[in-house]
Automatic annotation (TrEMBL):
Chain intervals with Basic and acidic residues compositional bias: 84-94
Function: Binds to DNA and alters its conformation. May be involved in regulation of gene expression, nucleoid organization and DNA protection.
Location in the cell: Cytoplasm, Nucleoid
Protein name, entry field: Nucleoid-associated protein ACFQHR_16895
Entry keyword set: Coiled coil, Cytoplasm, DNA-binding
């Protein structure tokens, strides 16, 4: 016989674990660089940009285009890495909560 109360308890437990995992995403930080470290971007597991750092040698008005390109590259890399770390954290915290259903992908749930 189908145990509705047991299933509801599992759903509540999964929701609590997902909320806990989402809270942890704020504390995961990733710093990526472009141009051999001339531009560094730091993002968190929620894919929010936290900080950008520039090498002083880039502060030349004649190099605006290069600086813009390096910023875009560093930010995109940091966002990709932060997203991946966030997915890993969510997967780790919700592992075993749901049966392995082919085609069911919750890797982006809550990100």
């Amino acid at each position: 016989m189908f145990d509705m109360m047991g299933m509801m308890n599992k759903v509540k437990e999964m929701q609590a674990k997902m909320k806990e995992a989402q809270e942890k995403l704020k504390h995961i930080t990733v710093t990526s660089e472009a141009g051999g470290g001339m531009v560094k971007a730091t993002a968190n597991g929620e894919r929010r940009l936290l900080k950008i750092e520039f090498d002083e040698t880039l502060m030349n008005p004649n190099d605006k285009e290069m600086l813009a390109d390096l910023v875009v590259a560093a930010v995109n890399k940091a966002m990709d890495e932060a997203g991946e770390r966030g997915r890993e954290e969510m997967k780790k915290n919700t592992e075993g909560m749901l049966p392995n259903i082919p085609g069911l992908d919750l890797s982006n749930f809550g990100l």
